[in-house]
Amino acid sequence: MNYTVAIFPSEQVQQEANSYRKRYDSAYALIKPHMKVRQPFPLNEEDDLIDAVSELKRIARETAPFSYHIEKVSTFAPAHNTLYFKVTPSEELKTLHEKLYHGFFEGEKAYAFIPHITIAQDLSNGEYADLHGTLKLKQFQYEEQATQFHLLQEQEDGKWIVKETFTLGEE
Length: 171
Description:
EC number: 3.1.-.-
CATH superfamily: Cyclic phosphodiesterase
Order of helices and strands: EHEHEEHEHEEE
Family: Belongs to the 2H phosphoesterase superfamily. YjcG family.
Active site: 34, 116
Strand order of the largest sheet: 2-1-7-8
CATH architecture: Alpha-Beta Complex
Radius of gyration: 16 Å
GO molecular function, one term: hydrolase activity, acting on ester bonds
Helix content: 25-40%
Pfam families: 2_5_RNA_ligase2
């Protein structure tokens, strides 16, 4: 099974993201708005899951809650017609990301870490141009607090569910 580690933004940011995702995000029904801090990875054995949870508890304990900023909409174009809320990476967020690629989670990074919350993906060129043209003129100013991260598990139908939640800085 595939797993990932993500941070869910505030309800206010989720509502704003979903106002676009309902129409423009092909994954709208599969996962709620989130910021992935670790790319998906497989765990095949129950023992692997137990070890992963143990390591995530350690990482959460060693990581203090932190803030992050959302300031605008950005894009992965021309590689992908995807639009997202751009998260300005704090040092704490970058450190958390790095911890999730060491030790038990050692692995090759497929992409550079660009923290974001997807609001539109798999768009036609026309949809992309229209939506990007509208959204790049808007200001999105959110100051968010990360107090938890979540281990998500992909289900057979493609939906992602929360397998476990980890509170930052908690003994």
